[in-house]
Amino acid sequence: MDKNLGDYAAEVVEIVAKKGYPLAKALVCTLYKSKTDLLLYGIDKFTNERFKIRIKYFAHEEKELSEEKKKYFYEKINERNMSILVDLLEKARISTYDLHAKILAKLYSNLIQNDKLNYYEHALLANISSLSDLDFTYFYNLIKNKPNSPLITQDDCEYIAINKFIQIGILSRSGITHFGADNGKKVPIDFEINNFSKALFNMLKSTGFFEK
Questions:
Q1: Rounded distance, CA 166 to CA 98, Å?
Q2: Domain carrying residue 37
Q3: Is residue 23 a contact partner of residue 53, using CB atoms and an 8 Å limit?
């Protein structure tokens, strides 16, 4: 008899469970049957168990704040900040990328400390779902290793990633004019680091994600 999605999912879960990988136990008891509702239930269980781990990032950031800051924020919370708080948590819950959760936890800390998010933080929150962990890796390495404009690259992915950050204002254009690419198909990216770039770089560095 041909295998269906539920059968394959069950086999994968059994393998990772034997290896003792985190979160696998949330799926072991739910993906052995092929019924669609059980498969979806298992996926939902996985997402929720993953969120239990990710919420620890928020708890860690909150622990670093003073009791006065936390008390003021939660006692005076308004509808706008409540909406932001819910969005931070929901995006951390459903995101494919663990790095997203770490960044969102940092934004959560900034929200409590300042009782608001600044323009760049709003832009980051609004656009984070369109940025992969590879985009953030390209950005981090750019600021760390190639801080001066223009960047000449043969890497199409790097070109696309850096332009994403330009589009949302986290990098700026310097206004330098370039004409096409050279014979080696190296493409120039006109960019300039701004205060938002520096803030994001420091945030990414503090996650420890790139120091592994």
A1: 23
A2: 1-55
A3: yes
